[in-house]
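This section describes the prediction task in plain terms. A model, or a person checking by hand, is given the sequence of a single protein chain and must write out its three-dimensional structure as a string of C-alpha cells. No templates, partner chains or ligands are provided. The sample shown here is typical of the held-out split.
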Amino acid sequence: MATNDPQELAREARARNYVRDLRSFYRLLGTAAMVLAITFTVNYLTSPGRWWFLWVAFGFGIALAFSGLNLLLKGRLFGAEWEERKIREYLERHSR
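The expected answer:
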C-alpha cells in the first residue's frame, strides 16, 4: 500500500502485528501437536499404564490458552481506543 495517510499507515501496522501474532499462535499450535504426538508415542511404548504425557499436554494447553486469549483480547481491554480516551481525560483534567 502506497499511502501517506497516517491513519491508514497505523491501521496497516496494526494489521501486520495481528497477522504476526496469529502466525505465532499457529506455530505454537503446530509445535504442540508434534510434541504431544511424540510424547504420547514414547509414553505408550515405554510405560502404557502411566500417562505422564498428560502433564506435557496440560502445559501446552495453558500456553495455548494464554496465547489465544492474548490474540483475541489484544486491543480490546487496554487497546488504542482506551489509550486515546485516557489521554483525553488526562489532558482535560490537567489543562485547567
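For orientation: DSSP finds three helices and no strands in the chain.
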